[in-house]
Amino acid sequence: METSRVLPHPLRRVVAEQPVPVSSAWRIRIRMDDRPGTLARIAIRLADLECNILGLTVLPVPGGVLDEIVLRPASGLPRQHLIDAMREEGCACSAVVDADVHDLVDPAATVLGAARRAVEVPAAVTEVLRGVLAADVVTLVPVPDANPARTEGGHRAVFALDGDLALVARRHWAPFVDLELTRALALLGLLTSVRDNVQGPVALDRPDGAAVVLRKGIPGDADAVSELHRRCSMNTLFRRYHTGVRTVPRRWLHRLLTPPRGTSVLAVCGREVIGLGQLIPDVAGGPAEVSLLVEDAWQRQGIGTALLTRLGVLARADRLAGLTAVCLPGDDALIRTAGRAGMRAERAGEDGAVRIPLD
């Protein structure tokens, strides 16, 4: 016996595949005392108003907590009615704004995802920071235009960057709290560490296309550093060591590459070491001593500037107070190099010392 089959009606299939309309979602911020039972009363009150809680984040603030709740309100519920209900519970509802699906993501996952995007696309830092802070807009401006005290009818947060630029975040619907600002600072700190790449090698972007890499020195570089000294002129070696040396004793090479408490940075082109920089911290916590040596054929090509810049990055990573170097009287080469590296160098006395403060 043949069994008959009922085929679905074409219109019935179309209706079934249409998305079900989803009601709007709100993001609300409620300031309350940090006392047991307060949040439970808020949840009960929201249930009485037929609001469905979709997400909750607790933001500690001075004198209490700020609960950020993403909810789906009852159909036709006025926002002011919700605000009045929170006030009746002894809480202050500081903001009720529209929310979307992105507001339901775990905050930690949001920050980690934002950090990944910012690392992969550094130019997107303003948009990434806007998402992390739930800001209305984030702009990149010169430091003199940042003006942290300005309000512009809303709320602002200013984040200084290296150089003369700053990021300014603006938000009208609610003030920024400390936890949000801490997340933003952690994100920017991560981006700085990635950019500086303190532990790894750095390739120089040179207009002539020469493949020059800056990296830390190791004992295995002793022969290459010895050859660097051999290629340097007597004048270059005298400006570095302040004495008439032509060759470097073997026992010096180890101290040049792995100085006590310090580090060395080599400029390498192919298999040749063409420059050497040293950073030696002061045991008393004063400025760290720096020194540079660039072979004659590579001088005035930015190698010394790149080495000094890298030493400055390493010094800042170690929270060092500044840099200092001893130069011969009338030798202003290091001061000029520091200027090209964006640093401010100055003579510290008649003994030839040059000081370079680090911001």
UniProtKB/TrEMBL annotation:
Residues 27-107 form the ACT domain. Residues 212-359 form the N-acetyltransferase domain. Keywords: Acyltransferase, Transferase. InterPro entries: ACT-like_dom_sf, ACT_dom, Acyl_CoA_acyltransferase, GNAT_dom. Its EC number is 2.3.1.-. It comes from the Bacteria. GO terms for molecular function: acyltransferase activity. It comes from Amycolatopsis samaneae. It holds the Pfam family Acetyltransf_1. This is GNAT family N-acetyltransferase.
